[in-house]
Amino acid sequence: MSDPFADLRREFDSMLERSVRQWPGVETGFSAPVDVCETPDAIEVSAELPGVDEKDISIDLDGDRLVISGEKKAEEKREDKNWRVMETSYGAFQRVIALPFAPEADSCDAQFDKGVLRLKIAKPKGAKAQGRRIAIRGAGQETGQEAGQETHKEARKDEQDNARQNAKKDEAAKGGEKAA
């Protein structure tokens, strides 16, 4: 005898999966997680693709975009068994990674081993790492541009105050000379 709660859960999971597929922007099916890092001479990408055959993977460079796509195919029919748990996913996938440069032809090296795709994309000559620090501001704080404008205003006010003080000193000095 089957567990009625297990049947109910399986039916509920199936219903939820069917309804989620209809929501725009919600991804279902196989997804390929990636890690991207930058070295002084290259961009390195690794993508976890367990269960995907090498022949089912496509790697393309489109300007300054790296496109990894493919399909994880189901290994067997699933309808003929009474499944207790189904956590594996199958289907087509695509990952698009923006690169900080447009790679030169033949500048990409790819290796696939034990379900992990590793790519090394050489930087073109003259390409430098583009990085800069971004300040974090809390609520009510000024943006960098506003802060710059305020700093400029404060500097002008300080200059005007110094000019007034110097003028007063000059007048006082001249007044002292007349008394003598």
Structural write-up:
With 180 residues, this protein is of the alpha+beta class. Among the domains are: 27-76 and 87-122, Sandwich (Immunoglobulin-like); 141-168. The protein contains two helices and seven strands. The strands form two sheets. A four-stranded antiparallel sheet has the order 1-2-7-6, with no helix packed on it. Strands 3-4-5 form a three-stranded antiparallel sheet, with no helix packed on it. A hairpin with a 3-residue loop joins β1 (34-38) and β2. The longest helix has 36 residues, at 144-179. It is elongated. The termini are far apart. 8% of the residues are buried. The mean pLDDT is 77.
Query: Which spans of ≥5 residues are poorly predicted at pLDDT below 50?
Result: none
Task: Report the β-strand fraction as a percent range.
Answer: 25-35%
The average pLDDT value, as a whole number, equals 77
Roughly how many Å is the radius of gyration?
32 Å
Which structural class do the helices and strands define? alpha+beta
The portion of residues assigned to helices is 25-40%
Order of helices and strands: HEEEEEEEH
